[in-house]
Amino acid sequence: MPETYHRVVLAQDVPDRSLAGFVVNGWPVLIAREEGAFHALINRCTHQAASFTPDGRVRRGAVMCPLHGARFKLDNGECLGGAGYAPLLRFSVREVDGWIEVAVPDEAPGAEHLPVTPLS
Ligand code: FES
Questions:
Q1: Does the Cβ of 40 fall within 6 Å of ligand 1?
Q2: Strands, DSSP E only, in the chain?
Q3: Where does the Rieske domain lie (predicted)?
Q4: Considering the domain boundaries, does residue 109 fall inside one?
Q5: Which of 51, 73, 77, 107 lies most in the core, judged by the most C-beta atoms within 10 Å?
């Protein structure tokens, strides 16, 4: 599927061990930074489609879902622990002139890629 890089955020605005959510060409994108490295993953948990932002956490190479606590590796999207949820979709990410750029598909995402807001 063709994809294009989009300029998303200044690198200095994503502190180490933090995450931030964006919508890029309609795609929900999670940008996480740990030990200086940037990662871009889909901002939709594969368990019950929760968004990782704003309450998710970045620790020890993984992002934790705020809804039920599933953890996914930043470098390959794999689910850690016994839960066995599907891996997170990852996007290519690069830093250019101090900006974080993320490559997302040129096609709009389907509903299966969009997060939902849990009922409270
Ligand atoms: S929705 Fe993420 S762990 Fe359940």
A1: no
A2: 3-10, 18-24, 27-34, 37-42, 57-59, 62-64, 71-73, 79-80, 90-96, 99-105
A3: 5-102
A4: no
A5: 51
Q: Give per-residue pLDDT as tens, 42-94.
A: 999 999 999 999 999 999 999 999 999 999 999 999 999 878 899 999 999 99
Q: How many domains would you assign to the chain?
A: 1
> Best of 19, 44, 48, 88 to mutate for ligand 1, by most ligand atoms within 8 A of CB?
48
Closest atom of ligand 1 relative to the 68 alpha carbon? 3
Give the integer Cα–Cα distance in Å for 113 and 53.
Answer: 15
What is the tens place of the pLDDT at every residue in 8-52?
999 999 999 999 999 999 999 999 999 999 999 999 999 999 999
**1 pLDDT tier (thresholds 50, 70, 90):** confident
Domain residues for 71? 3-104
Residue 115 resides in a domain: no
Q: What is the pTM of this model?
A: 0.93
The domain that contains 34 carries what CATH number?
Answer: 2.102.10.10
Asked whether 14 lines ligand 1 (CB < 6 A), one says no
Q: Where are the alpha helices (DSSP H) in 38-83?
A: none
Atom of ligand 1 nearest to the CA of 83: 3
